[in-house]
Amino acid sequence: MTACTTKRPLTQKTTSPILQQQRIDLKNIPLSPILPLPVAGVSRQQLTDTWGAARSAGRRHEGVDIMAPRGTPVYSTTVGIVSGLQSNPLGGNVVWILGPSGSWHYYAHLDRHKRGLAVGDMVKAGDLIGYVGNSGNAKYTASHLHYGIYLQGKGRGAVNPFPYLHGDF
User: What pLDDT is attached to residue 16?
Assistant: First the structure.
């Protein structure tokens, strides 16, 4: 898969010269070691590093859970291409974004995606992508966003996102 392909025709929101250049150079943009927090109104001091915690069926937690009320806006942490909008039993309503340097950003347990968001859309850091919820296997927990970063492909090579999350937009 190349970062410059899309299944949707270019729309007004993806045709600015800056975004076109980013679309072409996405793999050449380094992943910043400092990313903004993806949940509105949550500060770094409110985060808990949940990386590696035990989960059902012998799994380990491959992300950080960011607690927030249901319906709180969730924003992309990076420039990228929306590469997956789906619902599954584990993550519930999820958004996958292919970002800088081939990084994959996983936003799970959403209440819902942003209306009109589609696979192939180009996003930049700070663009609204969804809303906090407790879908999937989190249906009996407090609402939160599960945020994961993968560096070896979609769902492969998980790294702890906690050290990356430092600031606001």
Answer: 47
d(CA 93, CA 20): 28
| Helix (H), strand (E) at residue 21 | helix 17-25
Domain extents for the chain? 12-48+60-167
Cβ count within 10 A of residue 87: 13
Per-chain mean pLDDT for the chain: 85
- Torsion, Cα of 12, 85, 71, 88 (10° steps): 170
> In this structure, how many other beta carbons lie within 10 angstroms of the beta carbon of residue 168?
12
Beta strand ranges found along 19-164 (DSSP E): 35-36, 64-67, 73-75, 80-88, 92-98, 104-113, 122-123, 128-132, 144-150, 158-159
Q: How far apart are CA 143 and CA 84, in angstroms?
A: 21
pLDDT for 14-26, tens place per residue?
Answer: 444 545 554 557 8
In the predicted model, residues of the chain with pLDDT beneath 70 are 1-24, 168-169
Domain 12-48+60-167 matching CATH 1.10.443.10: the answer reads no
Q: Determine the length of the chain.
A: 169
Cα 125 off chain centre by: 10
pLDDT digits (tens, 9 = 90+) for 33-59: 999 999 999 999 999 888 877 787 788
